[in-house]
Amino acid sequence: MNAVSRVLLGLLIFNGVTAVGGGLALITGVIPDEPSWVEHTDFPTVYFAGVILLAIVGAAPWSRRR
Description:
Shape: elongated
Number of domains: 1
Radius of gyration: 15 Å
Helix content: 55-70%
Largest sheet: none
Low-confidence stretches: none
Structural class: mainly alpha
Distance between the termini: 18 Å
Strand content: under 5%
Keywords: Membrane, Transmembrane, Transmembrane helix
Mean pLDDT: 86
Transmembrane segments: 7-31, 43-62
C-alpha cells in the first residue's frame, strides 16, 4: 500500500467515524435541536438528517465492493 492509498484510507475512516458519531448525536438529542438547521429542507426535525448521516455517510466507508 503506497502513501496515497494510506492517506485516502485514513480520510475514509475519519469520515465514517465522525459521520457515525454525528448521526448518533443528532438521533439521540446530544446535539440540541435548532429549528433553523432544517428550516429550508424537507426534514421536519434533525432526527431524519441524523439517520441519513449515520446510515449513508457513516456506512459508506465501511462497505467494500467485491
